[in-house]
Design brief:
single chain, about 850 residues, alpha+beta, Immunoglobulin-like, 5 domains, eleven-stranded mixed beta sheet, 44 strands, about 50% strand
Length: about 850
């Protein structure tokens, strides 16, 4: 240090530069600026250490002071005054500059600084980072400063400085909340800006940005993507060389922290998948693979421009549980993407799936679904499925290693919007339908306790335009709900896999691509959940006279054979309509039941148990399997008996020799029933047009009592079936007329003997094994419906065995004076037509009944 620098700011007046004066100076500088208290006078005029020689000094000092005052009075020393003023001003300036101005200027700079980014563009991607061009507007706006004194000081200082420049600077950005992990660095070139209030600076420079610790980048990126980044605090630190104009201000270490709220951070932009195409793609030396081509469009709302190079990614899907590892299913690459500020961005990607890993198709623990099933379910339900995208560690194209390393450590969940398949099924039909009634011996929870349906399902499904690869449906299964007019009828259970085949129909200019699927279902249980709805359906089929439309809503599982192997696509929503052809308004009349082979199996005093073979015509296109059914037989609202059948197979068209059993028991209807039964039986054997009403009841279908009870509201009235009588037509089929042209009767022929006054009758019995006994006959023969010929009263029983039989000679009491008897004599040796009225006592086993009989047009021979 020079002597001048070591000297005090102000030296004593009149000091010389000689050795003597130098010694005096050194003595002066060694003297304290303030003397000790021991040398200072006390306020009471005494000294602490009084010495004898001090009095003289004091006296001398007093004399000098008095002398100085007298001199001052004569002349002021202006240099000293000016020096003292300058000293005071400098001291005040130092105090303001050192303590007040820096803090005020710092506060002013923080509040007044305005930075408006106008563009951020990527110049190039280097081996170590990114070279970016940054353009912005910079200015100081004093009006943003709230404190008036800070504003005045800041404006004054920045006006004096004019401009501020910096040299080449390296800025390090740290994450204080993450153990000060280095997030990245930026190399900024030298800059110079005007700091005068209100003056705008267009800043345009190129900076080199380099990533920091990859773990820090990954942590921040993943928390941001998962929505867990509520805020982020950044700390920037740099050694900045500053200068004001041409005056260097030295190198300063600048550090500052900024906190960004999560809501103010840039968000993942919304995007639209504008193109999605799946197709087969040959792979050299390997089996064909499945390729996916995707175009995604978004909008860049930020002032950022860059060119993204070709990137390679891995496509993954979540495992069974969130804690499980994700499953890699495909590799994908993106083309080069040009991102421009405030403009649309289009990204084209190409993915390739060579095979499906086993972990993707295996069922999850304690579940019947695999990860692929869960992904498909969301997609097919129209929900947003999530796939995971992660960068490949091996860079693609000219992608630098550092970028590949960062991307490979970040997994981005990408929402994949599902698509609704509500209109996938174009048509749905069920043909060759066969119904099977429940098994009466089945347990309530057994599937065979429900009606079962067999038939051929034909489905025409529309294929989405993005599916451009071959596929074949091999099996289907489903749980389907069946509705009628919006009300649920039941559930069609197709839980077992049903074989299927499909035909792919390519798209044309006028029609979309479709897939025709055909499957045969066998004995699928139909669980009727609402018997009232079934009643409405049957009523509409029988009496409506038009097609009945049933709606089916199902979740279908499909086994599909593709180039990647066999896939099981579960829970595909399917909805279709099943048109059911009407049964016809006169289904019972068209059935034309004919009863033959009647056999009495048991009797009681009030009932007869019968078994017979029935021929019917099924006019509908449906067939049915009936393990057991029971119906009541009624007439005029009175129950007369019950008919039931077991193991019936009814097919479209003629059905012959169906075995049916019945119990004739009019006592089921009480006294009224007994009388009604007697009259009905009499009318029937007399050939009257009789009708029977059949009605289901709670026990009609033992496994479905509610169904039988619901159907009981539908009463079906049909003509009493004709009995097939021996000899009544060609081949004794019961369909043709008698030999004389008359219709078939129980009394087939009669012969009157005039001289012996007797008559014999030829009887035909519908029974095949049982003999009917006639206990009594009280009959009158008539001519022309009203003229009596004679009367027969016979009380001796005789038998009427199966088939044709001849009665014994019955005595006749002639009506000699009647016209009828005269006509009888005129017909001697020939034949005539007569009528008969009779009350007959009939006995079958233990059952006994008295019936009346009216016969017309009975052919009779007249003999002597």
């Amino acid at each position: 240090m020079s002597d001048s620098e070591r000297s005090p700011l102000l030296s004593a007046a009149g000091s010389s530069k000689g050795p003597k004066s130098r010694d005096a100076d050194e003595s002066f500088e060694s003297t304290p600026l303030l003397s000790s208290s021991a040398a200072t006078p006390r306020y009471d005029g005494e000294r602490d250490d009084a010495h004898p020689g001090d009095a003289a000094s004091i006296a001398s000092h007093a004399t000098d002071t008095t002398s100085a005052r007298s001199v001052k009075a004569r002349s002021i020393r202006w240099p000293s005054v000016i020096a003292m003023i300058v000293l005071a001003f400098l001291a005040l300036t130092v105090m303001i500059s050192a303590f007040i101005v820096p803090s005020a200027v710092e506060e002013y700079a923080k509040q007044a600084t305005v930075i408006e980014p106008t563009n951020l563009s990527l110049v190039s991607i280097t081996a170590n980072g990114i070279r970016a061009r940054i353009q912005a507007n910079f200015r100081l706006d004093a009006q943003r400063v709230e404190n008036e004194h800070v504003r005045r000081v800041g404006k004054a200082v920045t006006w004096l400085a004019g401009s501020l420049g910096s040299g080449d600077t390296k800025i390090n950005v740290y994450l204080p909340d993450y153990n000060d992990v280095l997030l990245g660095t930026a190399a900024v070139p030298s800059l110079s800006v005007s700091i005068v209030d209100g003056r705008n600076n267009a800043v345009d420079f190129v900076a080199d940005l380099a990533p920091g610790d990859a773990d820090g980048v990954r942590m921040i990126a993943n928390e941001w993507l998962e929505g867990r980044l509520n805020n982020i605090r950044l700390r920037g630190q740099a050694d900045v060389q500053l200068k004001a104009g041409i005056i260097p201000l030295g190198t300063h270490t600048i550090a500052d922290s900024m906190t960004f709220e999560g809501s103010k951070l840039p968000h993942v932009p919304e995007y639209n998948i504008t193109r999605l195409n799946f197709k087969e793609e040959p792979v050299p030396g390997e089996p064909n693979a499945m390729a996916a081509e995707v175009s995604i469009q978004s909008f860049n709302e930020y002032p950022v421009s860059l060119d993204v190079p070709e990137l390679a990614f891995e496509i993954l899907v979540p495992g069974c549980n969130p804690t499980d590892s994700s499953i890699l299913i495909a590799a994908a690459t993106t083309s080069r993407v040009a991102v421009r500020a405030h403009a649309a961005v289009v990204v084209d990607a190409h993915g390739l799936i060579k095979e499906l890993p086993d972990s993707l198709t295996q069922l999850c623990p304690n579940s019947d679904s695999s990860p692929l099933d869960m992904l498909f379910k969301k997609y097919l339900d129209g929900e947003t499925a999530t796939v995971l995208v992660r960068g490949q560690k091996q860079p693609a194209g000219d992608t630098p290693d550092w970028l590949a390393e960062i991307l490979s450590s970040i997994t981005v969940p990408v929402p994949f919007p599902g698509r609704s398949f509500d209109n996938l099924i174009r048509s749905f039909s069920l043909t060759d339908v066969h119904f099977s009634m429940p098994d009466p011996a089945a347990e309530p929870d057994d599937p065979s306790s429900n009606p079962r349906v067999s038939g051929t399902i034909l489905v025409l499904a529309g294929l989405p335009s993005e599916m451009n690869f071959s596929l074949n449906v091999t099996d289907v299964r489903a749980n389907a709900d069946v509705f009628y007019r919006g009300d649920k009828l039941g559930e069609l259970d197709l839980r077992e896999w049903q074989k299927a085949n499909s035909t792919q129909i390519p798209a044309t200019e006028d029609h979309e691509a479709t897939l025709k699927i055909q499957s045969r279902i066998n004995d699928a249980p139909l669980n009727v959940t609402d018997s009232d709805v079934l009643t409405d359906v049957i009523q509409a089929l029988i009496f409506g006279g038009r097609e009945v439309i049933l709606t089916v809503k199902a979740l279908v599982d499909v086994k599909v054979q593709t180039i990647l192997g066999e896939l099981v696509v579960k829970a595909v929503p399917a909805e279709g309509k099943i048109p059911v052809k009407p049964l016809g308004k006169d289904i019972l009349g068209s059935a034309a039941p004919k009863v033959g082979g009647v056999e009495i199996t048991d009797t009681s005093p009030t009932s007869i148990s019968l078994r017979a073979s029935v021929n019917i015509t099924n006019p509908t296109p449906y067939s049915a399997r009936i393990p057991f059914i029971s119906i009541y037989v009624e007439n005029n609202g009175t129950t007369l008996g019950e008919a039931f059948a077991e193991n019936l197979d009814v097919r479209p068209g003629n059905n012959t020799n169906l075995s049916v059993s019945a119990i004739w028991n009019p006592s089921m209807g009480g006294e009224k029933g007994i009388q009604r039964g007697r009259n009905l039986l009499s009318e029937y054997i007399s050939g009257y047009n009789t009708t029977l009403t059949v009605r289901t009841h709670r026990g009609s279908i033992p496994a479905l009592p509610s169904l039988g009870e619901a159907l009981s509201r539908l009463n079906f009235t049909l003509p009493a079936p004709r009995l097939r009588l021996p000899g009544s037509g060609d081949d004794d089929d019961g369909n043709g007329p008698d030999d004389d042209g008359s219709q078939a009767h129980f009394i087939r022929d009669a012969t009157f003997h005039i001289l012996s006054s007797t008559a014999t009758f030829t009887l035909v019995s519908p029974l095949t094994r049982n003999t009917i006994f006639i206990d009594s006959v009280n009959a009158t023969a008539l001519y022309n419906h009203s003229e009596p010929i004679g009367r027969i009263e016979y009380d001796l029983p005789f038998a009427a065995p199966p088939g044709r039989s001849q009665t014994p000679k019955l005595p006749v009491d002639w009506s000699m004076d009647s016209v009828g008897y005269g006509k009888l004599r005129e017909a001697l040796g020939g034949r005539m037509k007569l009528d008969a009225r009779a009350v007959v006592g009939v006995r079958w086993g233990r059952w006994v009944e008295r019936v009346w009989y009216v016969g017309r047009g009975i052919g009779a021979g007249v003999r002597l």
